Structures are given as C-alpha cells and as structure tokens.
C-alpha cells in the first residue's frame, strides 16, 4: 500500500470533517490503493457503511484533501447485502450480471477496513471470497467465449480487422478469467500486468504478453487466422471451454421485431416498428437470399450465388445494425462486449441525407451496397409514401377532369381542376421529402422553403399555374400543356415519372392499385394514417377492388 495506516486515518479524519455530522460510520478503503496497485495519482476511495434502513445516495462525493483526490461513497448494510445476493442470484447466468454490480462487490470484498472492523467483516461474510472468485472467473469466461466466437464469425465474413480486435479482447478476457480463479478478481484491466506478476505463474504471464504483442497489422488476413488459432490454443490451455475453431457452429438467426417489405425493386427493412433501412440493389439481393437458422458458412455460400461481390461485409453490416443476429449452436446468441465500454447493441447509423427521400418505387439509397437509415420514424415514413402515391392518383384524376372540361368549354371547372392537379403534385413533392403531416393546400407554395433549394423553380412554376385563367380554347390548351410540363418536372424530381396513367385503362388502374397496395400494407402494419378511408377496402381486398372477383 502506498500510504501508511496513519496517513489513511489522517485523510479520513479530514474528509469526515467536511461531511454532515450525526451518523456513525464504519469505514473501509476500496479500490486500487487497497489492492496494492495504486500510484500517487490514484483516488483515495472511502466507503462509509451505516445501519440505516434508508437507501443512501449512489453518487459519490469528490473531495480534495491535502492535495489528494478523495472519493466518498455511502451504503447501508442492507444495500450491500442486497448487492451480494444479486451477484449470487445472477451467477447462474453470467451474461446477465452487470459489470458495475460485480465491481462494487469486488471492491468491498478486497477492501481494507479502517473503522468499525466488525461491521465491515460481518457484511463481507455474506459472500465468501472463494465463491466470489468462481463467479468472477465464470463471468470473464463467458465474455471471452462471446468475443472469440464473434472473432471467428467476423473472420468468416471477411472482416479480418474486426476479427483481430475481438480476438485480442477475447485474449484479455481469457487471462482475466484465469487470474480471477487464482484470486486476482479486480475487474479493471489496466492493472492486469501487476495482477499477472502477483499470480506467480511466469509461464502464463509471458505467453500472454507474447500474444498481446503479436496483434496482426491491419489488412493481414493470413496473420489474423494464425493469431486467432494461437489465442484459441492459449484459451484451451487455461481451461476455457466452448470455443473450438468450428465456424459451422455459428448460425445466422432472425431478430424479433424485424420486418421486410419490398416496393418495386427496393427492399426496406423495418427495425422495432420505428427505424426504416433502405437497401441498395446489391444489399437487397443479399438480404433476399438469406435463409435464417443455417450455419454461417452455408449462408455465405448461398449469398455468393446472388452474384454480389463480397457478400460477407454486407452480412456484417446487417449484424451491426441489429437486422440479424449470430448464435452459437447450443450456446445462445453471440453477444460480445468489452469491459468499461459502451454497452453492446444494435448500431444506429447517421440518417440518410438523400433528397428527395423516397419515390413511389421505394426509398432513395446512396449506392448498390447501401444500408441507409431513413431520417424519420417508420410510421411517418410509411404515411409519407402512401401520401406520395395517393397524390399522384389525384394528379391523374385532376388531369382527366381538366381534359374533359376543356372539351366542353367548362372554363371554371377547368381552372379548379388545374389548381387541384398543382396542389396534388406539390403534396407529392413534400411527401417525397418526408414531410408528414403536410401543410394545407393554401400553404404549399409558401412552405417550399422547407425543401432543398433545388425545388425553388418548381415553386415558381406552381405559383404561375395556380392563378391561370381560362376563357378560350387556346388558353385551355396552353394551360394543359404547361400543367403536363409541371407534372413531369415534379415527377422527375421525386422518382414518379413512370407512374401509371391511372384512368386510361383497366390495366393502368390495376397497376395503380398494386403500387398503392405495396405501401398500404406496411402503413397498416404500423398504424400509420391512411391517405383516404377507402384505402382500408383495398387492404381488405388484398389489392383488388371490393366488387371485383379475385
């Protein structure tokens, strides 16, 4: 210990003088100094233990005493006993034991009593040190298995650099498990060198440091294969079980809450009813080829048949985003994690910056291998897509009305139909950019500054058309021509230039219904607002008209 007993007692007296009076505490020194690892920069960690039945604050107080940083924590006897019991209960499933809980218990069990020795020892006796060693060793062993299994899978997927990182993590966790079994249970890896020195096995220590120094250079796949093999052999020699080098034991599995739907050629993947990922052509081909529940090497062989180059990294990206999971046959889901790091879980990438965001055939993507997160919740995404399709139907209907009115010289009717077509086209423009709910029709032109600057000419064109008057056939023909040009510009901007001429024939109306049905299904699944109430009948009829034989 770098401080004498007298120095510790003096620091404790001065620290207690800064705390409120009235409580009798038992006090113990925790942390690296109590363990014999500390240095002049280490905190002085005092744990104050009282018999209060109330929960004492979890947050520590930080004091500065005689040039030293002093951390004060308080716990009641009941809180400490509850911690020990929670560790004992969680020992049956080490993957569910929280690191902070294990760390708190370890620090107390290896602490150095300063006052109220009898009370401190009474609390420590609730969880014998030998039992805690076994629990901690099992906890590290579970993590080592997960890391090494994940490394094996990443190497199979062609992600050699990531495989090297997880192999190194598994190496640390393996030796920490071994060290815990011989009494070195301090969790933080930063003192590992001193723990291995103190453990007294120079053969284990020297072999570990050789492996730690042999981490392969980035991009050296052959070296990663050899490195993984060496680390697995070391782990086996230290008694770690459950990690034979058999990648066929890794299986690709379904994740709860993942839904797939396709519109045209675009594949969309919905995560947890909230996030929408749009897949590029190659990513979509790999996704469609997946047969879940199979060993990873077989899945890779199947995806290779799609003709997509290097499908492994795409599978790895699906895994990172939580769209698939990996499991070990007989060992559950593979969930690698690192100590003192952010908790593992599905990654949420930055949202897509593509504009416009979607078309009637599906979301915009950044390239053939893209797995792009849409920048709005799934229900609003689906509602905007349904609105985009419906807006184009309304455009078609309004153009038909305008054409008929011009043929009969119904000038007022023609003017209203033209305005209706312009407003519907603008609703489609806003919807394609993910705006939902939409501005009112009267505000559409004024709200165009919400959209990218490239849409400004469309707004100017719309403003001109909305105030056109018709009182002669010549003016009517000019309006119809201008309107078709405007509609073409909008549809070109939002990827709807191939939208069916809905009211031209039975075939084009059927194509319109099929297109709308693709989006209605996912919208209904998400309880998104439907564009019109009649859409429910199209859903009930599975894409056919309600009075038509299927």
From TrEMBL:
Gene3D superfamilies: Beta Polymerase, domain 2 (3.30.460.10). InterPro entries: NT_sf. It comes from the Bacteria. This is DNA polymerase III subunit beta. It comes from Streptomyces actuosus.
